[in-house]
């Protein structure tokens, strides 16, 4: 069983991955719980049940397949704004043994926010891809996300500290890109607003 720092690292890494593939990450956590690789509290022991593993496995396949279909992928991303934060919260609850219920709920909320942030960045990238490439790059982007998610999940369970460190770098990179994009949009908006007056 991981110590407290290891549990936090694992939880952070998995909630980051859940922002990309929520059901796939939950499925991995379910398998890990089923085979006693991780040991959740009794409140989250259901995650390791055979029924949970089967259901999450099916939804994982649907999640991966639907993300390759034009238009359906955007619908999936819209629904995922609700699904992936929930997945992040469950992942924290199933991997972290907190000193009190209040602490655990706070950590679960933070996990949900992390998954939401990652998913929002992914959805924004997909929208930009659709506009810039008329959707032709969406399927390759989705395949790249699949590879990143699987790699992130495996690394999280084998080397949680390394996975968490990489997750931090990914989050910082996404935040930097978001800031740059927002500033570029503001500059364009300001230029358009000033253009009529300048003429």
Architecture overview:
By secondary structure, the protein is mainly α. It has one domain. 81% of the residues lie in helices and 0% in strands. It has seven helices and no strands. The N and C termini lie far apart (69 Å). The relative contact order is 0.15. The model has no long low-confidence stretch (mean pLDDT 87).
Short description:
This protein is mostly helical.
> What share of the residues does DSSP label as strand, in percent?
under 5%
What average pLDDT do the residues reach? 87
Q: Uncertain segments of ≥5 residues (pLDDT<50)? A: none
Q: Give the SSE order as H and E letters.
A: HHHHHHH
Number of strands: 0
Cα separation of the termini: 69 Å
Structural class: mainly alpha
Backbone CA Rg: 19 Å
Q: State the share of residues found in helices, binned by percent.
A: over 70%
- Largest sheet: number of strands, sense, barrel closure: none
Global shape: globular
| Total count of domains | 1
Q: Helical element count?
A: 7
């Amino acid at each position: 069983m991981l110590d407290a720092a290891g549990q936090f690292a694992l939880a952070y890494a998995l909630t980051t991955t859940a922002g990309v593939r929520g059901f796939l990450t939950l499925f991995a956590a379910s398998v890990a719980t089923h085979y006693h690789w991780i040991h959740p509290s009794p409140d989250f022991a259901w995650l390791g049940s055979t029924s949970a593993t089967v259901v999450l496995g099916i939804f994982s396949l649907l999640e991966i397949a639907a993300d390759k279909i034009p238009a359906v992928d955007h619908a999936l991303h819209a629904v995922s704004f609700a699904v992936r934060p929930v997945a992040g919260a469950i992942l924290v609850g199933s991997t972290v043994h907190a000193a009190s219920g209040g602490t655990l709920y706070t950590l679960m909320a933070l996990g949900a926010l992390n998954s939401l942030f990652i998913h929002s960045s992914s959805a924004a990238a997909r929208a930009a891809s659709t506009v810039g490439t008329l959707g032709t790059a969406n399927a390759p982007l989705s395949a790249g996300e699949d590879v990143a998610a699987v790699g992130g999940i495996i690394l999280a369970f084998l080397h949680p500290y390394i996975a968490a460190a990489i997750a931090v770098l990914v989050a910082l990179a996404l935040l930097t890109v978001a800031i740059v994009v927002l500033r570029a949009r503001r500059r364009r908006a300001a230029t358009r607003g000033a253009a009529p007056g300048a003429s």
